[in-house]
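Q: For a teaching session next week I want to show students how multiple molecules come together into a single three-dimensional assembly. I've collected the sequence lines for a complex. Could you give me the predicted structure tokens for the whole thing so I can convert them for display?
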Amino acid sequence: MSTQPAGNDDDPGVDAVGVATTPVLSQRAVARARRAASLRRFVRAYASRRAGMLGVAILLVFTLLALLAPVLFPAEMLDIIETVDNDALAPPSGEFWLGTDENGRSVLAVLVWGARASLIVGLAASLISMLLGTLIGIGSGHFRGPFGSALQRLTDWFLVIPFIPLVVVLAAVLGQRGLGTIVLVLGVTSWPGTARLVRAQTLSVEGRPYLERAKALGGSDWQQMSRHVLPNVMPLVVANTTLTVAIVILSETTLAFLGLGDPFLDSWGTMLDKATDAGAASTGAWWYLLPPGVCVIFVVLAFTLIGRALEAVLDPRLGRD
Amino acid sequence: MALTSPVDARTGTVSSGGATTPGGIGRFIGYRLVSGLGTLVFVLLFNFFLFRLLPGDPAARYRAVKNIGAADLARIRAELDAPVLTQFWAYLRDPLALNGISAWKGQPVWDLVGGRAWPTVVLLGSSTLISVLIGVRVGIRAGWKRGGRFDKASTAVTLLFYATPEFWLGLMLILLLSSGVGPFPALFPSGGVIDSGIDPLSIDGAVSVAEHTVLPATALAAVYIAEYSLIMRASIIDEQSQDYLTTARAKGLMDHVVRRRHAVPNASLPTITLIFLNIGFIIGGAITVETVFSYPGLGLLTFEAVSEQDFVLMQALFLVFTLSVIVFNIIADVVIALLDPRIRG
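A: Of course. Below is the structure for the complete assembly, covering every listed component.
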């Protein structure tokens, strides 16, 4: 890792100057080979964890279903004008494997399309949360003055605010319930956990000698944070974000169930909301209530298993099994 | 939704409680109260500005309410037209909106909130009791014989519970135990907290409340059974490598005595903290579970405030929820400091 002022690594001119003194491999090729080796080590360590691999397998199935939804069930099958002749809330049959909903739509078709909504919301909101959490976490760990402690206070305060009530109130206050609003609401509320974790890790990295060296050589705050702290914090952030996806998907289900979801998008939470409105629980329409919940459980379980396996592989100190 | 990892729980105790304070539990509690005060100021500010994000004309929401007087309406409009600083001052004098008028019912907010508090306390209390009693036992047994058959089975079930939305579990319980589907008789009522016309303080009343609370409390407890058993298992495993357990065994104590008298008391600290720290999450669960069971507590009231767009009521409820989290966080730190001298330093 170069401690020259930032930017030189990407400048081809520098490599040309350095050629005369470089042996067989350039500095960058060495770094690349080292990274490839550690990636292979990581993949091997991850593959030896059966629970983690189970998570990957479940997630692959649901990702495939989400991608293939338009092929398996053409979009017309979700159009209530097309399905008006079908029986409403009919139990499973040869034609409709999981029965029909209150509009005569195939529950199986709505379910498969719902995988898209849940995965998109889960991933997009977690991305926002990851960015915010990493920025605030590294900032609060790196800056020692009032700025750092202000960021730390902010994190601690947000950790106190109860998550689901905040999400519900924010969604209600913002009103327009598009997919974007929901992603935003879940993204800007779920970062404090990540920020706390990143801060702790940043503090431990900042104590190491190579950071002292970077400081002594006059590296800027930005260079210290982006070139030295970030690469060391990143593995934990990835593991933590995987767990965040699980929480976000559960929260989206909760929001949609409370009628705060996107009314034009069938997510699993929206299905459960419509099912209870149609009286599925009291009339015993189990085929409408059971499948969305089971899907949520599987996807959340998959992300939890992957996140735990990543944590265990990347940070052996946690000592989980 | 209690997806706090065991690590979070452990660092959570230590990080929030100024471990460096010298001298006595009194100093510690004082320090904790002062830092709680800072949080309180933030929460008050946050709660005020959150509801100023609202688009549209807030006074318009009151026009649909039938039983609201012209004088009240004029007062509400004048309050909403005032400059933000004046509004903020008014809010600081009455942050819980004790005098606020609900846009949904046209009555003072606290007439609505007051009567709804006790069912939620009953629900949260009983589900916490269920989850601690079951979760802790399962965790101890799984952790003591790590890798055994019971451990493997309980970890699998635990992870499934972890991933289950509370309200969906509630729907399944209604489907199985109170709708009377197929071979299952309708065992439990599926709505309300008590049959009408019974005094909740009589014996009949208590039985009726219990009948109405069993299913929602179970639905709410499942995820925490999972959480407590995971934490308890992890701490038991941690304790097993400690020297004092080897000493206890070397003295010739029976295995179950070593476990009950030596390992469990030390391993319970993270779980005890977590019980108090979970209040914020469990309130979140109560919103959906009470909605599913039409259980007339603060959670159902939140859902009603959201569907009726009653922001005055929502603001008061949100503050009540946040304040209870602050109070329980302080209790958690104090309890753990009383139990574990290492935290007091």
